[in-house]
Amino acid sequence: MHKFLPFAWFKGECIPFEKATLSIATHALHYGTAAFGGMRAIPDPNNKDFLILFRPDRHARRLCQSAKFLLTDLTEDYVLNSIQKMLTLNKPAVPVYIRPFVYTSDLGIAPRLHNIETDFFIYGIELGDYLSPSGVTCRISSWTRQQDCSLPLRGKISGAYITSSLAKTEAVLSGFDEALLMNTQGKVSEASGMNIFIVRNEQLITPGVDQDILEGVTRASVIELAKDMDIDVIERPIDKTELFISDEVFLTGTAAKITPIKKIETTELKDERPIMNLLKKTLIDITEGRNSKYENWISRINVN
């Protein structure tokens, strides 16, 4: 059962979550004309008066860029200040996932982005592990990742997630945990809501931004960490067959964090994941405020 934070940010103020309601005629509900973000906040292990947010500036920047596709001006300062007010009022004592959301709030029926009202809200939900830390099983989806020429994939546009939903359900109903989507060129793109990395010959490889991926914040962070560790990082197209012969395969995302893939289709993958384990441990230390080198990647909010 979902445990939502008691207060949401709605129409410029914090109100009780259950009172943050929308009309059934809301434009975004009908046409997917919305964009969202997602970030984690955890209680500071060393000081329970504070919450730690991982790279909130990067998340806010991507949301504001996504809003531009909706012809909406949203500033990073407004997003971050609204999140801070919402979290300060809620005072969560457990890890939470925050969902900021910009959407066409008009009640009109024409599919358009011009001459239409937009609005912004934020809510939070208690969230531990989204995927099993021990690893997940994946199938190759029969659904194909959209092309950037038909949908702005650099934004987290809500309408695009019908493909992710179809792929995820197909995977789960056929006995797997997660789906891997190919792009229209038949190359590996991403999972239903995560980026993907493989390791071959001690090289860390991930599909580039030209492979119709979402530009993930965790993905960018993993790439930066790996380069700092002198791990060879390559962004290039990945063939489906490479997945089955890789030394390591793992997923990254705000909800998923760093999650290993232990099986793809009928192929069991290796249990040894030295590069992934090193990156995962480092990222956990950073997100929990235990790595001074990357102190600028986190923000602390006093909630008491």
Q: Can you characterise this structure?
A:
This protein is α+β, with helices and mostly antiparallel strands. The protein has 2 domains: 7-126, Aminotransferase class 4, branched-chain amino acid transferase, N-terminal domain (D-amino Acid Aminotransferase, Chain A, domain 1, 2-Layer Sandwich); 136-287, D-amino Acid Aminotransferase, Chain A, domain 2, CATH 3.20.10. It has 7 helices and 17 strands. The strands form 2 sheets. Strands 8, 9, 10, 11, 12, 13, 14, 15 and 16 form a 9-stranded mixed sheet that branches. It is globular. The model has no long low-confidence stretch (mean pLDDT 97).
Describe the SSE topology.
Layout: E1 7-10, E2 13-16, H1 27-31, E3 34-36, E4 39-44, E5 47-54, H2 56-69, H3 76-90, E6 96-104, E7 118-126, E8 136-144, H4 161-173, E9 178-182, E10 188-191, E11 195-200, E12 203-206, H5 217-228, E13 232-235, H6 240-245, E14 248-253, E15 257-264, E16 267-268, H7 274-287, E17 298-302
Parallel strand pairs: 8-9, 8-15, 12-13
Antiparallel strand pairs: 1-2, 1-7, 3-6, 4-5, 4-6, 5-17, 6-7, 9-10, 11-12, 11-14, 14-15, 15-16
Helix pairs in contact: 2-3
The shape, in one word, is: globular
What percent of residues adopt helix (DSSP H or I)?
25-40%
CATH level-two architecture of the largest domain: Alpha-Beta Barrel
CATH homologous superfamily designation of the largest domain: D-amino Acid Aminotransferase, subunit A, domain 2
